[in-house]
Amino acid sequence: MSAPAYSKDHPFPARMTESRLLTRPGSAKETRHFVISLAGSGLHYKAGDSLGVYPENRTADVNEIISRLGATGDELVSPAMLKLAAPIPLREALTKRLALAGPTRKIVETLAGRATHPDEKARLAGMLKPEAKDILTTFLEQHEYVDLLAEHPSAHLTPQELVDHLRKLMPRLYSIASSPKLYPAEVHLTVAVVRYITNHRDRAGVCSTYMADRVQVGSTAMPVFISHSHFGPPEDGARDCIMVGPGTGIAPFRAFVQDRVAAGAQGRNWIFFGDQHRATDFLYESEWRQYLAAGQVARVDTAFSRDQATKVYVQDRLREHAAEVWAWIKGGAHFYVCGDAKRMAKDVDVALHEIVAQHGGMDPAAAAEFVKQLKKDKRYQRDVY
Q: Cα–Cα–Cα angle for 25, 26, 27, nearest 5°?
């Protein structure tokens, strides 16, 4: 009998075989290296692909919601968006199937209609007024469903009524930080574990803390799938690669370099990495040093933003080395960016346009056209989130 075809709709129950802290004591971040075994899955990946992970919510959050509903957790519910063949227990729905964050205006309307305490009713009704739109937006950003139940105890909801407001718990995608040429039966991930406080409550990134806190190395079955990507190293191993990956954006470039070294690619590799402090946040530092010493990576340029009075970022390092960056691009190099879409990727894009204009002797319109052609030729690729 052939192995089942695992996919997003039929994830593979993988085992985590390693969970290791990459950041050092004193770092403001908790970034971990995870190794996930794909043994027996029949799954294949390539450098540039991502791993999809289906997380579970924190037990404490689930227990509090059940308690606030005055429920046991055994009540059967049928969340409409899940399109289930049969109802499932409330606890299972809240743990594995539904997102507990991101409340919407609809739940505020429902609670306003149910609240029996005058103060609660007035507060909820006030936020629903047209002129209170900004207040409601801020309120929803700072609250999760558990907060709404805790702060409005007079508004009684049944388990089914609550789950009808919740959205589906979606899988999270993580850039794979390993090459199948070296690790055909496992994937490596580089994950920033998200922990923060809003509304005086400890919050947690659902999937990052699931892997860091709730998955037991070697024993927990983690539902995963491979998400194939067009992002990847050049097919022509003779091409040079410039890779810009600050923070966890370095993940796919670790895979690229492993892949190119294993394939004997002759093209040069240039890494731009950035984070807060060199002493605590230089992810995979020893590996980069080994590659440099072996001549397998030509350059590693770093930008540690908090190590000096003026903050320095990867786009600043690109500008510092603009002439050489242009020489590599003019010579056929591929240019890659991975990481934060909101700011970093935009700032790097601006820097790239400036470098092309300045060192390529082009006006802004010609530079924009040149960069556009790089994209068409798949020589400028981004994996941003």
A: 95
Mean of pLDDT values over 196-201: 90
Q: For residue 82, give every residue at least 6 positions away whose Cβ sits within 8 Å of its Cβ, in sequence order, or none.
A: 93, 97, 168
Contact 27, 276 (CB under 8 A): yes
User: Cα–Cα distance between 254 and 262 in angstroms, integer?
Assistant: 12
Mean pLDDT computed over 99-114: 96
b/e burial code for range 188-223 (CB count within 10 A of at least 16 → b):
bbbbbbeeeeeeeeebbbbbbbbbbebbeeeeeebb
Tell me: pLDDT of 257 over 60: yes
Burial class (CB in 10 A: 0-12, 13-18, 19+), 14: buried
Question: How far, in whole angstroms, is CA 367 from its chain's centroid?
Answer: 31
State the residue for tokens 């490596």: 188
Task: Compute the distance between CA of residue 353 and CA of residue 159 in angstroms, rounded to an integer.
Answer: 54
Q: How far apart are CA 273 and CA 281, in angstroms?
A: 10
Encoded tokens for 190 = 């580089």
Domains along the chain with CATH numbers = 12-54+171-227 (2.40.30.10), 59-163 (1.20.990.10), 241-384 (3.40.50.80)
d(CA 337, CA 316): 14
Q: Contact at 8 Å (CB) between 194 and 209?
A: yes
Q: Tell me the C-alpha distance between 366 and 303, whole Å.
A: 29
pLDDT tens digits, one per residue of 318-333 = 999 999 999 999 999 9
Of 320, 329, 337, 323, give the one whose Cα is nearest residue 271.
337
User: What is the per-residue pLDDT across 77-94, written as a single tens digit (0 to 9) for each?
Assistant: 998 888 899 999 999 999
The residues, any chain, with a CB within 8 Å of residue 382's CB and separated by 6 or more, are 231, 336, 337, 338, 345
Q: Are 59 and 95 in contact (CB under 8 A)?
A: yes
* 14 or 84, greater pLDDT: 14
Residue pLDDT, tens place only, 265-277: 999 999 999 999 9
Q: Which helix (H) or strand (E) holds 251?
A: helix 251-263
Supply the pLDDT for residue 1. 42
